[in-house]
């Protein structure tokens, strides 16, 4: 989507739809108060009114709610509301009059993000309907100070990256295989000169002693891949690890059939990491990134790992695999250990890891667990600013007891069903070698969040959070 910031009067905006936000109680602008449609005007939050002022084209008003409650998140929401109305009237271009606030950069970014995210459609497998083509916003103009162009450009790049992650999530698993993810990594490298990559295949993964990824992948005929993306922007290396299970049946500990089709999105963490790195490279931020993505299917077969088997992870620790549906922590363990070995000084991992986090936090917050207060605080601040929220859950030595195995160092599934989200994080902590580390369990936020600008489908959660974090780190 083309995004521009222009210092013009609303009447000069050459757009199919002009959008004006109205704070509660402020009333219509004087030049619109007598327009056709004005009698239907509502100023409540998210309420819309279409006006047809003489000589002014079509104008949409959107209720912004109370002025002191308006923030970047509300800007994303009202932008999504406006985008939906634009689609209904088949507007290919939209001009937004920036509301007057104390945080113009954040509001301009929010309007940009909300418009782009809400305009995303997954149409790859539908035949085009020539009689009723899908309306699409091709241009967004913000009527505001041109000094906001930098903020809107960052917002555009991050939102477009998030939409690419959503595209990866929504692809069926017979298309978005581990090899497909490796091909996407190659595309990113071909587009950005500061990004390089390597891909390990099944034999190389096994030869390196990555017992978790080897074990999980052995039930599938699809080749596993260990994808490493490096962004050479300078500075201390930051590790980003994303879970890339391209389809998760649960393995021998098979999942219920209901909603199993959603398990094509068990690679949401991988999608977020890959597309965030692409966005950070496009922004040319001055920091060093090491992205590690363990990609595999988890399938039942005569070759599949069995409950009770013992494996050896990349860092040498042994694990009793007591539940093959707790596979994410096994592949992440290898990836985290490898990421640290490659030189990452601090690490963030993103994974659709536990159903328990959905029970605890719903789809509003991702679960955040960390071994380092300062690092956890930095990630949480980036989450808050991006609107991709994360709530910190505690780690404690008592939880570590749950991870101990009977005949091996660790077990991937504790016998007691206690604090399952935290237990999984405690397991992962065994593989970061004491580095400052944050684990984000995004099982509740990766899809079906019902947020106005991403709806019920894939959300691409984590892309804007990581871009926001990278912006912070690049300033220090």
What this model shows, in words?
The chain has 13 helices and 18 strands. It has 476 residues and is α/β, with parallel strands linked by helices. The chain has two domains: 2-143, Leucine Aminopeptidase, subunit E, domain 1, CATH 3.40.220; 171-474, Zn peptidases (Aminopeptidase, 3-Layer(aba) Sandwich). The strands form three sheets. Strands 7, 8, 9, 10, 11, 14, 15, 16 and 18 form a nine-stranded mixed beta sheet that branches. The longest helix is centred in the middle third of the chain and has 22 residues, at 149-170. The two termini are 31 Å apart. 54% of the residues are buried. The mean pLDDT is 95.
Summarize it.
By secondary structure, this protein is an alpha/beta fold. The chain has two domains: 2-143, Leucine Aminopeptidase, subunit E, domain 1 (3-Layer(aba) Sandwich), CATH 3.40.220.10; 171-474, Aminopeptidase. It has helices at residues 72-88, 104-118, 149-170, 178-191, 202-207, 211-217, 268-283, 328-341, 356-361, 373-386, 397-402, 420-429, 463-474; strands at residues 2-6, 17-23, 48-51, 59-65, 93-97, 139-143, 195-200, 225-232, 237-242, 244-248, 288-298, 309-312, 318-321, 346-351, 366-370, 390-392, 410-411, 437-441.
């Amino acid at each position: 989507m083309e995004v521009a910031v222009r210092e013009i009067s609303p009447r000069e905006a050459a757009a199919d739809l002009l959008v004006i936000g109205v704070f509660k109680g402020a009333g219509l602008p004087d030049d619109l108060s007598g327009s056709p449609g004005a009698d239907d005007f509502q100023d409540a939050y998210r309420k819309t009114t279409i006006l047809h002022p003489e000589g002014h084209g079509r104008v949409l008003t959107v209720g912004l709610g109370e002025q002191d409650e308006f923030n970047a998140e509300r800007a994303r929401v009202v932008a999504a509301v406006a985008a939906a109305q634009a689609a209904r009237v088949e507007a290919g271009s939209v001009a937004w009059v920036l509301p007057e606030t104390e945080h113009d950069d954040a509001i301009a970014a929010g309007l940009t993000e909300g418009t782009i995210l809400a305009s995303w459609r997954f149409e790859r497998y539908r035949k085009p309907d020539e009689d009723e083509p899908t309306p699409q916003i091709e241009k967004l103009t913000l009527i505001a100070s041109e000094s906001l162009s930098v903020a809107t450009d960052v917002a555009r790049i991050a939102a477009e990256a998030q939409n690419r992650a959503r595209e990866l999530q929504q692809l069926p698993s017979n298309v978005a295989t581990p090899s497909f993810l490796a091909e996407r990594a190659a595309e990113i490298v071909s587009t950005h000169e500061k990004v390089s990559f390597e891909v390990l295949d099944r034999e190389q993964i096994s030869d390196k002693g990555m017992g978790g990824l080897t074990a999980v992948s052995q039930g599938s005929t699809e080749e596993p891949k260990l994808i490493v993306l490096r962004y050479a922007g300078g500075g201390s290396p930051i590790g980003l690890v994303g879970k890339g299970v391209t389809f998760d049946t649960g393995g021998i500990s098979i999942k219920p059939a209901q909603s199993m089709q959603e398990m094509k999105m068990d690679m949401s963490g991988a999608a977020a990491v890959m597309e965030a790195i692409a966005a950070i490279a496009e922004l040319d931020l001055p920091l060093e990134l090491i992205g590690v993505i363990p990609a595999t299917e988890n399938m039942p077969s005569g070759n599949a790992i069995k409950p009770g088997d013992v494996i050896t992870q990349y860092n040498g620790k042994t694990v009793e695999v007591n539940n093959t549906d707790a596979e994410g922590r096994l592949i992440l363990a290898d990836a985290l250990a490898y990421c640290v070995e490659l030189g990452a000084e601090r690490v963030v991992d993103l994974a659709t890891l536990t159903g328990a986090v959905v029970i605890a936090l719903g789809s509003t917050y991702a679960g955040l667990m960390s071994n380092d207060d300062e690092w956890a605080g930095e990630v949480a601040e980036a989450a808050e600013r991006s609107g991709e929220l994360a709530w910190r859950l505690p780690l404690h030595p008592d939880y570590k007891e749950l991870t101990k195995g009977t005949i091996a160092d660790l077990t991937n599934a504790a016998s007691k069903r206690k604090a399952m989200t935290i237990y999984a994080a405690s397991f992962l902590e065994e593989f970061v070698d004491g580095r400052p580390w944050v684990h984000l369990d995004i099982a509740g936020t990766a899809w079906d969040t019902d947020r106005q600008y991403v709806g019920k489908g894939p959300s691409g959660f984590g892309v804007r959070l990581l871009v926001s974090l990278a912006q912070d780190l690049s300033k220090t």
